[in-house]
Amino acid sequence: MPALRDRLRDPSPLLLDGATGTELERRGLACELPLWSGSALLAAPELLREIHRDYARAGAGALTANTFRTHARSLAAAGLAARAGELTGRAVSLAREVAAAVDPAPLVLGSAAPLEDCYQPQRVPPDAALAREHASHMEQLARAGVDGVLIETQNSVREARAALRAAREAGLAALVSFVCWQRAALLSGEPLERALECAAREGALAVLVNCLPPSNAAPCLAVLAQGGLRFGIYANLGTPLPDGAFARSEDCAPAEFAAHAREWLAAGASLIGGCCGTTPAHIAGLASLLRGRG
Question: How many Cα atoms within 13 Å fall on the side-chain side of residue 214?
């Protein structure tokens, strides 16, 4: 599947989209665990389509299909494990429908999340489960026809490695993104340098950090710039809580968010976007920033 690989040969920055789960909640859909944003595939597919459309109109060059919680492990907690392939395909189809109506059409990326909790690395499953379950999810994403996969919010090198290997075996071009916080280290405590080494060794096309406040991105930039891969950042404006609520960490207007992104680009980032709490207005601000640099 050459689409993502071809796009990354272009030296111009790739603009990712913004949040899905928190945007669903902002528009009135309660996203509770274990399904989180995946609940929209069952309860509100038209709302999900609308969010994709708004990101495309804002200027996103890639739409992330709502497959963050469609792997069988998360679905099993809601009694829906048998529908993993169906719901993964539905999520990709919704994003593809929107992309096809835009000229030029944005890429459609599959999202591959940690099998357990994004913020609790002690819950990463054993290696055999990682290999088996990520392989199943990647095969479903490949069958659904994504242009590539965004392996995101990874909190340990071990799980990122398993997901990258599964993507490669499924024939999927992959980006990988790690969650750090106040320093250039994963939530597992592993240094970001080790994660970059893993990403390069396992064939990632680019490496990113995500789901950290924009003001915390600076410690990661120097490390990312020395990693030998294209790199990027898509920051959050807060984090989801276990009860489905949202803790805002920074009240950051689109113009301020774009000012942070200007620093990322100046450091060499070639992929930018938004994570939890960001909206189409934030992505439109990034699109304006990129147009101004053109």
Answer: 26
**Do the beta carbons of residue 144 and residue 169 sit within 8 Å?**
no
Q: Who contacts 55 (Cβ-Cβ below 8 Å, separation ≥6)?
A: 17, 18, 63, 280, 283
Written as one letter, the residue type at 279 is: T
Residue spans of the domains in the chain: they are 3-293
According to the model, what pLDDT value does residue 240 have?
A: 56
What's the topology of domain 3-293?
Answer: TIM Barrel (3.20.20)
Measured distance CA(160)–CA(255) in Å, rounded? 33
**Average pLDDT of span 152-178:** 98
C-alpha 167/C-alpha 188 separation (Å) is 22
Show the tokens assigned to 70.
């469609």
pLDDT by residue (tens digit) across 206-225?
999 999 999 889 999 999 99
What is the DSSP secondary-structure string of the chain? --HHHHHHHS-SPEE----SHHHHHHTT----TTTGGGHHHHH-HHHHHHHHHHHHHHT-SEEE-S-TT-SHHHHHTTT-GGGHHHHHHHHHHHHHHHHHTSSSPPEEEEEE--SS-TT-GGGPPPHHHHHHHHHHHHHHHHHHT-SEEEEEEE--HHHHHHHHHHHHHTT--EEEEE-B-SSSBBTTS-BHHHHHHHHHHTT-SEEEEESS-GGG-HHHHHHHHTSSSEEEEEE-SEEE-TTS-EEE-----HHHHHHHHHHHHHTT--EEEE-TT--HHHHHHHHHHHHHH-
For residue 138, give every residue at least 6 positions away whose Cβ sits within 8 Å of its Cβ, in sequence order, or none.
112, 149, 163, 166, 167, 169, 170, 172
Residue 242 pLDDT greater than 70, yes or no: no
Q: What's the rounded Cα separation, in Å, for the pair 265 and 272? A: 8
